[in-house]
Amino acid sequence: MSQPAGHELAIEVKGLSVSFRGTTALNAVDLEVRKGEVYGVVGTNGAGKSTLIDVLSGMVKPSAGSARVLGLDPIREAGELRRRIGVVSQEISLEEKLTAWENLQYFGRLLDVSQPDLEDRMQEMIRFMNLWGRRDDLVETYSVGMKKKVHFACSMVHSPEMILIDEATAGFDPITKRETEELIVKMNRDMGITVLLTTHDLAEARSLCDRIAVLHAGDIVGQGSWDQVASPYPAKLLIEGLSREARSKVEEVLETGLLERTAMGFEVAVSSQAEAFRLAGELQARGIESSSISYEVPLDSIFRDLTDGEDEDGA
Amino acid sequence: MGLSPKPLSIASTDLRKLARERRTIVLTILLPVLVVIVVGTTFSLGYQEFETKELVVGVVKHSNSSYYDMLVETITGQGARAIVYRDVEEARGELVDERIDTIIELDPWMDEKVQEFKRSWIAIHADETRPLLTAAVEAVMLQAKQQAVDDLIWNYTRRIRDEIIPGILEGLDTVESMMEEGELREDAESALDILSPVVPIDEGDLLIVSDMAESRFEAIMANGTPQEKILLSMINRSAVLGSLRSLAEAKPLLDGAYNLIRYVEPNLERPGVIPDQATGDLLSLGRNLSHITAEQAALMNTLLPMLREDVIAALAEANPGASRASLEQKADEILDSASDFLLSVTENEDLLSNLTSTLADIRGRLDATDLPGLYSEGKALLETGAGMEKWFITSPIYLMERPLYFEGQTKRYVDYISPGIFAFGILFSVLVYTVLSVVRDREKGILSRIFVCNVDRWTYVAGKSIVCMAIAAVQILILTGCAIAIFDIYIASIPKTLVYGLLSSIGFVGVGLLISSISKTELEALTASFGFCFIMLLVSGIFYPFELSPSIVRQASRYVPVTYTADLLKAGIMKDSSLVEVAPDLVAVCIYGGVALIVGALAFNWRKRG
User: Exposed site from A13, B4, B421, B505, fewest CB < 10 Å?
Assistant: First the structure.
């Protein structure tokens, strides 16, 4: 993750509401995304994540409120906006009967990239995605991970300043998911592209995003840095790699009611991140050494709490 | 949009995809071709009889023939409606404007021709992609033909068989029997004997004899001997002189008669070859000979020697320088010939009379009948007519088809429906391709991607229209190839067929966009497309005759774009029509196309429904 470049905003959303036939998809949403950061919008299915992307890309007109993307109105200045942003949809939307090269060429032309620039940019993107050797193969012969790369490349062929990614890894196997996440990081880090992504996976959001917003039923129910979002919630301190002597000391130091033995060591329930830091400091002060002390936030409970008890599937 | 290359990018990409997509090629191009081949084959095999309800038939009435009434009665009796026109062009105008379904035009001289057993005609004016119109008309005509055969042809033929031909045969029998019995031949030979002496006499010489005779008679009466005066008083001088003059005047007739009989004699067994002039001469001869009675001829014979010296003197005057001997010889020849002729007339008065009247009778029969034609025709008719059944009789009413577009050409049913086949092929291809490609792209999120690539709906629709026109062009060329190679269909103008087909295809793109907008899945879109196609086919009368459909369907056809597409293609395929001629259909197709394209574009959804 690159560092935010000051506080210049890439996206500024105020009181944004969207309704479809009486159903509220977004309800007075306020959101700010800084240039250069990776911002995650987390929410269950139907929370309004894709609608937010649609509004920001100018596909859907808001019912109320305003949105500015790169300082532009997504509806009134859609043409200019789309030349400066890339949109990566949840499903891989490629022409499967074309090659990767032809796909890039097709969407590049539609995006008004001039021919000389397009050639250079296509080569750059194909190499960036490590697809040079198979650039002339039909996309339908690619693995899902390769298709995802081409899918991203097509959204970036016009050198956007910012990219909107909708559910980038939903339904992927672990390997493809990891490759996609690495790609997003690489885009942000190496190309300096501002990223707004939506996901229903808190872990993914935590690993990729500088800041997140939790969206539930059209409302923002929490937003900020990961620590800001997670700190109020109970967590676990994992103390592992202890010698026998150290284990005894731990039991002496900590209240037994908080301790739970595990195969590798102890799990200590803490009420907050601050308490976890305090306990870790105390163990260190008592000379207790362990190979690993880690802090784990129970994501599912945070999610459940923020979303009124629904799990990640929206149940 | 301007000159933006985006529509071309969309079109070229779609075509590239299409070239690599076998399933889509099969669905959009090959399947329609297969369908039209099957349909074309089916309809080219012919058709059965069809109902004619609600058919409006224009009957062109050139004259007051009773057959018009019979035809109108037959048409209305079958449930169709008949409208009578006086002018065929007026009726054809009404047909073009579809106020009537067909025109039946009767030969103005049908009554006369039928009575004369000449070939008459009934013309059907029909131009058909509205397919079974011809069949329906033929159903009417079948009835009319039956009626005609019953009331007209059969009765007429029976009359010929029972009355006319027996009369002809009777006449022929008479002539033949006279020939067989040799009557004519004997008379002719005798007549030649009579006429042969007088033939060498010069006509002028006979006049000299006549003039001399008159002056001699006057001289006898004034200065003659008593015996001469007595002899002369015993004859009617004016009659004798008249006879002599008559003989002189009849000389050309006698020559003609002689030649006639000589000519006729060997040809008596060949009726009809006797020349008119010859038989006319013969009749004149008969009338002139009747001026000379046998008694007068005998008296003339006794007086002739008295004229010898006068004749010689007259000949000497007419031939100065001639010797006395030659003048005497010539005078004797004249007088001898005249004497022989007069004797022959005296002796053969009855024979000549018979010959004259017999030849006159033959001539009368010959004049009264066209023997060469009727003889062979009547013979042939009688040979086959005895056991003849009426349905074996070829209708003398010739049924002509005079279609608006196939003027002067004989066409089959498959030719009439070929524009409909083309229209169906284009409709099916364009519709299926449009809905398949749009719904597929939408389902795969490609439409959303295209949208965020700064492509507006008009650009996208323009791109799709280019692709569809390309598909339609390929479709038309394939169908044209099939039409010519498989069905041997006449195509008046391939370029115009192509242009009209392409224009029509634009409207179908709009319809395809509309269908794709209301469909969530490929299955829904294809089902809707097939439904639309079949409704269009039935309502537009491409394959099924809307003339035979309920009136509400016929009215509906006016509001269906495929009707005008078929009309336009008719103009291209069946007739190399000018733009002016097809202007109404062209305007209708353009309006439909424009409206459908605009509505389809406005209803177009980039995102998935639901």
Answer: B4
